[in-house]
Amino acid sequence: KTIYRYFFDNLSMIPDEKTYLVIDVAEDAPVGILQEAFVAEYAKPGVKFVIRGSPWKILNIHNDKIYVRSEDDPTGAIPSWVGEEIPVPMEVALEVGKVKARVEEGMLEGQTAREIAVRLSEDYPARAETIERAISEIVEHVEKGLPVPTDGRVVVEDWDENVIIHANFGTLVNRTLARLVGHIISEETGYPVGVQQETYTIVTQTVGEVDASYVVSLLRNLADTDLDAIMKDAVTKTGMFKRRLINVARKAGALSKYANFSNITLGRLMKSFEGTCIFEEAMKDTTRKDLDIEATMKLLRKMGNGEIEVMRMETGGEISPLAKVVIDGMRMKSDIVPPDKITRIIIESARARILNETRVLACLGRRDHMDTYRIKELPEKVECPRCGSTELGVFDRSIEEVSKERAKERPGRKREGEPWWERGKAMAKLVSMYGRRGAIVAAAKRVDMTEAWDLLAETEGETNEFFDRIVEGERNALKRRFI
Fold first, then answer.
1. Three-state DSSP state, 202
2. Least confident of 69-78, 190-199, 314-323, 377-386
3. What's the average model confidence in pLDDT over 73-79?
4. What is the pLDDT averaged over residues 255-261?
5. So what's the pLDDT on residue 187?
6. What's the mean pLDDT in 151-165?
7. Long-range contacts for 189-198 (Cβ within 8 Å, ≥24 apart)?
8. Which of 439, 478, 438 is closest to 457 using CA atoms?
9. Among 483, 187, 454, which residue's Cα sits nearest to residue 472?
């Protein structure tokens, strides 16, 4: 039996991943769902993320529920749809660094942006006009007298409560370097440190005495430390490693696919697998697929011996043009939607969803009609086309199931049918009194009958207010179901 279960549980090469319910502590209501991959990588108390168009801060994680509160400031918030990005290779990023170096060199020699773009168009398959637009931020950067990050130079700057590292090393190296820097800062200061990385940039939070000078010194001296041990320690503390460990343990049959995780149980899980082949395989998976440790160590040695220059950039408290591009890009990724626009989107989405639902309408009068209807195609007054009765039940089941259940009903005899049947019968009274509007409410997700009567009585027509009240009813139903 165990062998059969293992075989069928592991037929698919796609890893089994749980989902986590996100709950707003202020409203004590569900906000949305997060995937296990996102939770393992990013979900820690204090982390900000974006879901449903708004930024939220994680307060606590308990079993399969994540408790959050709403945030006004979206800076540093991670989009909840972030997954495994297609990495930009280090070779491509270094080539971009060479282009930046050519732009800086040309500007310092007195060339115009147009002249530089024309020269670059001779070496790269793009028009001069396109290249001129692409290098505009680099040109502005040089015009302000700021050093440009190139393939041979790493530039570090302070901005607000962050340190920004400009490094043209690509996705995997920057991801590795970000985890390494964040780990060391956290170990030395005793504070948890948030890091984000892009193909050409790493953004780390400032804590304690940490600033650009601190990070410059750190990058220059890392090559003199026991990089292998530090790197291994840093990797095991990443969410990526935890996710790989869970997947490997499940594939090995050492962990149930239905197991619940919180930060505490994940920590215990890692300890229990230390020194095992599962732990080593997860480490190999992480270093092979998510990071590039070998290239990172090679580049750190170049920073240590001066082959790659590492310098602090003084901006006078202002954000540099190149950093502004990065921060704006992160904010755009976060996709923060204004509250009033969110409300409109939710209402229109609910309207489109419900009106396109199909339901079986069955006559409960003479019981001589039953058919499937799309809600938006129903007339204002809904009635049986055969007997004219307005008492039609609304069922989210097939005609066969509804017909079978209706056949069990006997006039004058009380009978308790399936829950879906009893609910559909109760909805007949809404349809009888409110017609199409009653059918719309019946097609919504689990709206309580008392709420259904109230919202129909307190609204008119199919207005935004009507659908807003339906959404509220659906939200309350979800709350009752999960909390």
1. strand
2. 69-78
3. 61
4. 66
5. 83
6. 91
7. 192/44, 192/46, 194/46, 194/47, 194/76, 196/76, 196/78, 196/330, 197/171, 198/174, 198/326, 198/329, 198/330
8. 438
9. 454
Q: What is the DSSP letter of 150?
A: B
What is the residue-wise DSSP string for 276-290? Answer: SHHHHHHHHHIIIII
Q: Residues 127, 132, 134, CA angle at the centre, nearest 5°?
A: 95
Most confident of the following: 59-63, 195-199, 401-405: 401-405
d(CA 377, CA 374): 5
C-beta atoms surrounding 80 within 10 Å: 22
- Give pLDDT, residue 129: 93
- Tens digits of residue pLDDT in 332-346: 554 444 455 567 778
Contacts of 424 (CB under 8 A, 6+ apart): 362, 393, 394, 395, 396, 397, 402, 442
Domain boundaries, the chain: 20-79, 90-334, 343-482
Of the candidates 211, 433, 199, the one whose C-alpha atom is nearest the C-alpha of residue 452 is: 433
Q: Do 348 and 468 meet the contact criterion of CB atoms below 8 Å apart?
A: no
Instruction: Looking at 122-273, list the stretches that DSSP marks H as alpha helix, in order from N- to C-terminal side.
Output: 128-134, 136-143, 171-189, 212-221, 227-236, 239-251, 263-273
> β-pairing, 78-79 with 195-197?
unpaired
The residue assigned the tokens 């989009």 is 79
CB burial string 88-109: b at 16+ within 10 A, e below: bebeebbebbebbbbbbebbee
Going by C-beta distance under 8 Å and a sequence separation of 6 or more, which residues neighbour residue 421? 395, 402, 405
Nearest of 275, 278, 216, 215 to residue 246 by alpha carbon:
278
With a pLDDT cut of 70, the percent of the chain lying above it is 86
- Mean pLDDT of the chain, nearest integer: 84
Question: In the structure encoding, which two tokens stand for residue 407, read together?
Answer: 């056949």
> pLDDT band at residue 161, thresholds of 50, 70 and 90?
confident
**Helix residue spans in 305-418 (DSSP H):** 321-334, 339-355, 399-407
Three-class SS state of 295 = helix
Only one residue has tokens 């165990």, namely: 2
24 φ/ψ sector (left φ>0, alpha ψ -120 to 50, else beta): beta
Task: Work out the pLDDT band at 417, boundaries 50, 70, 90.
Answer: confident
Q: Are 123 and 115 in contact (CB under 8 A)?
A: no
CA 122 – CA 204 distance, rounded (Å): 38
For tokens 């890692």, the residue is 270
Average pLDDT in the 207-228 region? Answer: 86
DSSP run (H or E) holding 225: none
Give the separation between CA 483 and CA 138, rounded to whole angstroms.
52
| pLDDT at residue 457, as a whole number | 92
The predicted structure's pLDDT at residue 220: 92
